[in-house]
Amino acid sequence: MSWELTSDVERFASVAGAFLRSSPVQNTVFLTLIDNLRSRGLHAYGVEDPFFGWWRRPDGEVAGVLLQTPPHPVLFSALPAEAVPAAASVLADRRVSGVNMADGDIAAFADDRKYVPGMRTRLHRLGTLTPPDPAPSGFARPATEADSDLLIGWLRDFYEFIGEPRSDVPAVVDDHLAHSGITLWIDEGAPVSMAVRSRPSAGMIRILYVWTPPALRRRGYAGGATTAATQAALDEGAGEVVLYTDLDNPTSNALYHRLGYRPVEDRAMVIFS
After folding, report:
1. How do strand 51-56 and strand 62-68 relate by DSSP bridges?
2. Which residue among 22, 35, 93, 187 has its CA within the 20 to 30 Å range from the CA of 200?
């Protein structure tokens, strides 16, 4: 039993692909990141090279994976218990600013290292889509290139709001427009909310970002946009539609539950001091 590391995304996809596709809901972020690194280049998330890893059982089967796009925390799949401290050992010589992993694995990975707790998230999968009742005023439409300036501003605001500002927002917007992956909610002739979804991967689509400007909140627009984006994912043939929520945001957790999303697992991010 051991970890193997590589900087080759194609080798990682080849070795770990079957493991990831066997649980596409739980591995949604890995599948999306692989697609983005292939389509947008290895430096889509930063100037440093990403690296990847997998944990093999004694029979040679892959039973866990990791991925880092520096400077972001190392992302881990669900892991066998013995793979958690082993991961800390194999990464000891690398600059690891933090980790994102199953909530219950944090203590075993950190051991006696000091860390600052970061965002705790909950993965949800769609059960039965239940549109908001009453429906918000307005209607949904796909965003187009004519909306680019608005979308760039809103996505920058979103990243600032979650404390993860990015410099590549125009490229992110262009990428999602290229697959018609941004849904706008329109009211009184103007966009008031957006929901962004991933490309299909292993039969799964993820709702990535939902944003309503602060001055336009509490009118149901986010529910309308999310419902429309979810329906668009189903219309594209997604067998699973998933999303993450911030566990410290009871408003969004309650909204997505009303729309038909149900909890799957909780994750935690920590930053090492």
Report:
1. antiparallel
2. 187
Over the Cα atoms of the chain, what is R_g? 19
Q: What topology does CATH give the domain 125-266?
A: Aminopeptidase (3.40.630)
Of 265, 270, 249, 223, nearest to 110 by C-alpha is 270
Q: How many angstroms separate the CA atoms of 183 and 141, rounded?
A: 6
| Helices assigned H by DSSP within 126-249 | 148-161, 169-178, 221-235
Pairing of strands 74-76, 98-102: parallel
The region of weakest confidence among 41-45, 151-155, 170-174 is 41-45
Instruction: Look up tokens 């329109």; give the residue.
Output: 186
CB neighbour list of residue 46: distance below 8 Å, 6 or more residues apart: 69, 70, 71, 72
Domain ranges, ordered by start, for the chain: 2-113, 125-266
Pairing between strand 261-272 and 98-102?
antiparallel
**SS3 call for 43:** coil
pLDDT (tens digit, 9 = 90+) per residue, 212-232? 999 999 999 999 999 999 999
Amino acid identity for residue 188 in this structure:
E
Q: What is the reported pLDDT for 1?
A: 77
Query: Rounded CA gap, 17 and 202, in Å?
Result: 10
Reference 77, options 41, 28, 40; nearest CA is 28
Asked if the bond preceding 170 is cis, omega within 30° of 0, the reply is no
Residue 95: pLDDT band by 50, 70, 90 thresholds? confident
DSSP state of 60: S
Q: What is the pTM of this model?
A: 0.90
